[in-house]
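Model: You mentioned two targets. I'll fold them one after the other.
Researcher: Yes, keep them separate.
Model: Target one:
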Amino acid sequence: RRRWRRHRSGGVRGGTQADRMCATTDAPTPVPTPAPSTATPQPSGCGGGGCGTATPAPPSTPQPGTPQPSTPQPGTPTPGTPAPTPQPDTPQPSTPQPGTPAPSTSAPSTPAPGTPTPASGPCVRKAWSTLPCAERELYIAAVKEFKATRAGEYDDFVKMHDTAWDYAHGTSGFLPWHRYYLIGWENALQSLGGNFSNVCLPYWDWEVDAGSEETTSVLRPDTFGSYVSNTWPACVTDGVAGFPDWKITGGSCLTRALSSSFFTDEASMAALIMGNPNFSTFYSSLEGAPHGNPHIWVNGQMADSVSPEDPLFFVHHANVDRMWALWQDYHGYAGGAAAGQYTAHSTTVVRTSALQLSSVMPMPITPGGSSTLPYFAAARTVEDVMDLAAFGADAYTYGGDHLAYVLGAPASGTWDWATPTSVAT
């Protein structure tokens, strides 16, 4: 299988993780915040699942190396991410699973597959670091439920990524292919029914973790697993991906070794977006250090072509997709102008045939096969995924965005998709 090579990001390593909503212990020495913040109290109800405690419990089975506490950074609580004005479309799977779930007022422990209850509008993807606890809990519960009840389909998601490697990596197909892949994943979770019908994919805003990666809010014992620094990949034993409840294809444990790389900070990401108006240089720069280093830092399966074995993959790539959406919006490629980024800047794909706007993106489960998952029933071309608002039932947007605030006014003068906020995560 193919593995990610290490990249080093340019710019100053800066920014700190502000996972303040659920802290229950004394905070360490304050670290200066690089941008102004106007804060209001966080939602209540942060005990237990979805937020955990300030210091994660050690794994049930000791790991090699010395476990380090996931200590939140100090600061005034910040508000949850504001959502933009809802659009008329409703996110739901392309092809719902058979059956109809019974009405439910909370996420069922074992929801039957069925047609999702209509949501109030398109999915609003929000930053994990400021995601309200209830929404963290809902997302983690949906991932756990999908893995428990549709393990075969989860394995097919992994195979699909491995099969499409040469089309979707190191080429101009990298961003559009993964955008559609994430839509399929979001549809799959919503197809569980009940409260899961409205679950939206959060994004791991790793740019705010740069310089303090070990305190990232995605690693907690009741979410994606504790932070444990390992010399070699070791089994994950807690969180949604903890063994033995979570097994990768073949039945063994998921492994991580959180020690070998660092993330690209917010200032460097802003410079990358502003300084690369040409798509061919933008996608290759984004695929390098910003996208590659979190894969390497997590290590284990995340550093391989079967990286979706680790549920961190999806929240990581949601942030990569957000960076592309910000780039599109900043340079005037949102909405109907989105297709221009390909026709004007890049029509060639390395290692594969020329990528045209009319190219149908391959989503087979096995090499050369025609079968795919029901969440990808509609064949999508590259042009089909250019405009976030034009996906119909699959439409989504991103919530209040501090990076958009850092970027300032876009080329068009107004943001079409992003909602800038001065509140730093």
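Model: Target two:
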Amino acid sequence: MNLNDDRRSTFAGNKDHHCTVKTLDPTRLISVYVGNLPLSIDDAELFQIFSNFNGIEDLYINKYTRGFENTFGFVRFSTIEEAERSIKELNGWPVNGRRLRVQKSKEALRMKTSKDNTSN
């Protein structure tokens, strides 16, 4: 689900939930990895899990599991503060008998490392 434009969005399965989003530079977004998702989860349910956090720009669920029963996804935030707060509060959160694994994505970690190396 891509929310990265200026429009009022309605999330699938929840016609009462609207979100106004702004266009941002995607290179400035902070990606959060969400692992151990239930196989049945959809975009609207993942958004609902993260709905207490501001600055959600888009999300993605990978359901191609290659025989494994582990669905994962990514949620991208416009601020590092909300991304880090979501990690702190949702890592280990129970969803349909599974405990979410929420952490900075490898992409976000690579970006931080490259910024640290250029500032020296």
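Researcher: Noted. Anything on target two?
Model: The helical segments are 43-49, 80-90, 106-118.
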